Amino acid sequence: MTAEQRTTATVLDGRATAAAVKDDLRGRVKALAERGIVPGLGTVLVGDDPGSHAYVAGKHRDCAELGIASIRRDLPVDATQAQLDAAVAELNADPACHGYIVQLPLPKGLDTQRVLEAIDPDKDADGLHPVSLGRLVLGYDGPLPCTPRGIVHLLRAYGVPLVGAHVVVVGRGTTVGRPLGLLLTRRSENATVTLCHTGTRDLAGHTRLADVIVAAAGVPGILTADMVKPGAAVVDVGITRVVGPDGKGIYTGDVDPAVAGVAGYLAPVPGGVGPMTRAMLLANVVERAERL
Ligand SMILES: Nc1nc2c(c(=O)[nH]1)N[C@@H](CN(C=O)c1ccc(C(=O)N[C@@H](CCC(=O)O)C(=O)O)cc1)CN2
C-alpha cells in the first residue's frame, strides 16, 4: 500500500458507546426504583494494586451516577483465604446485593478458582463463574463476561459486520479470549473464530486473513501494521501498566499505533473496550434486578 492510499481508522469510541448504554440503564434503574427495587453491586478487592484500586473506584463511581447501590469490601494485602471466603459468603447472603465481583488478579497465595466457585452463580456479575461460562458454552441465558460482551456491543454499535466474518482473537485467557470465541460463534453473531495465542505458529499469517482482530494477549505492541489486512476492524484489549516518560503509570495496549493507518476501525486503549467493560458490569446487575 502506498502512503497516499493509507487511511486513518474510524475510532470505535468506547466512552461514547458506554455513555449511551449507561443512559439506557439509568432509565431502567429509575423504573426499578418506582417499584421499590434498588439494584446493588458489590465488589471485593484484596491488596493495594493501584490498577485494581482505580478499576474498583470507577465501578463505584458508575453506581453513584446511575442510582445503583454500592457495597464495597476491601481486604488488606495479607488477607487470609478464610477472610476472603467470609467476604464472599457475606455478599452471597446479602439481599441488597444483586450481583458482585471479586477484582482480579488476587494477591499471590489466594486461590482464584476457589473464590470464583464460591460466588453464588445467581449473583455472578462478572459472568466468570463456571456455571455462567458453562451456560455460555451451552447457549443458555445467563450473565455474560463483561469485556467480551462489551466488545460485541461496540462492534455492533459501529455496524461492523460479524455474521460470516472471520474474527481472529489473539489471547486465550478466561476473562476475554476464550469466552469471546464462544460469544462470537453463537447463532446471533455467527462469526467464524480463530483463537490464537502467543505460542501460535505464524501468528501474522492468521491475523492477515481476518476481517476483525481482537488483540487480548497482554503483550504491548504484539499486533503490528504488517499483520493487518487493510480495512479490517481491530479491537485492542491490552491493558498493561507501564511507566510513562514522566515517571507516572500509563496504560499501553497490544496494538502498535501504526495499525491505525491500515485498519478500517480501531478500538484504542484507552477509550475503547475499558469503558465498555464497566458499562456491561452495570448491565449485568440491572438485568439481574429486573429478573427478580
Ligand atoms: N473481576 C474482574 N477483574 C478484572 C476484570 C474484570 O472484568 N473482572 N477486568 C480487568 C480490569 N477491569 C475491570 O475490572 C477494567 C480495566 C480497564 C478499564 C478501563 O476503563 N480502562 C481505561 C484505561 C484506564 C483509565 O484510564 O483509567 C480504558 O481502557 O479506557 C475498566 C475496567 C482485570 N480485572
From TrEMBL:
InterPro entries: Aminoacid_DH-like_N_sf (IPR046346), NAD(P)-bd_dom_sf (IPR036291), THF_DH/CycHdrlase (IPR000672), THF_DH/CycHdrlase_cat_dom (IPR020630), THF_DH/CycHdrlase_NAD-bd_dom (IPR020631)
Keyword Oxidoreductase found: yes
Protein name as annotated: Bifunctional protein FolD
Pathway(s) served: One-carbon metabolism; tetrahydrofolate interconversion
Quaternary structure and partners: Homodimer.
Binding-site positions, NADP(+): G171, R172, G173, I239
Summary of the function given for this chain in its UniProt record: Catalyzes the oxidation of 5,10-methylenetetrahydrofolate to 5,10-methenyltetrahydrofolate and then the hydrolysis of 5,10-methenyltetrahydrofolate to 10-formyltetrahydrofolate.
Family: Belongs to the tetrahydrofolate dehydrogenase/cyclohydrolase family.
EC number: 1.5.1.5, 3.5.4.9
Tetrahydrofolate dehydrogenase/cyclohydrolase NAD(P)-binding domain segment(s): 145-291
Reactions the enzyme catalyzes: (6R)-5,10-methenyltetrahydrofolate + H2O = (6R)-10-formyltetrahydrofolate + H(+); (6R)-5,10-methylene-5,6,7,8-tetrahydrofolate + NADP(+) = (6R)-5,10-methenyltetrahydrofolate + NADPH
UniProt-listed CDD domains: NAD_bind_m-THF_DH_Cyclohyd
Gene that encodes it: folD
PANTHER family hit by this protein: C-1-TETRAHYDROFOLATE SYNTHASE, CYTOPLASMIC, C-1-TETRAHYDROFOLATE SYNTHASE, CYTOPLASMIC-RELATED
TM ranges: none
Domain Tetrahydrofolate dehydrogenase/cyclohydrolase catalytic: 12-126
Keyword annotations of the record: Amino-acid biosynthesis, Histidine biosynthesis, Hydrolase, Methionine biosynthesis, Multifunctional enzyme, NADP, One-carbon metabolism, Oxidoreductase, Purine biosynthesis
